[in-house]
What does this fold into?
Amino acid sequence: IQKKLGMVTFKIVRRDDYSIRMEEKLVSRVKEWISPTIKVDFEYVDAIERTKAGKFKAVVNEINKSTKTV
It folds into this structure.
């Protein structure tokens, strides 16, 4: 989820095989692929929400969402 520039949040469902090392690898890859200065946060959830079609939304961009009009 990206709510502002320079920052991304990953929702994580912790399973039995979860380790902090997985997060460290993810942070490393994001900084390598996107930007070495990007801030990476994690939000721990019980489940990942699905769309109305029942699919997972891999990328959620909420930048400027509050400024959009209907």
User: Anything to note?
Assistant: The first strand starts at residue 7 and ends at 12. The first helix runs from residue 20 to 33. The mean pLDDT is 86. The beta strands are 7-12, 39-44.
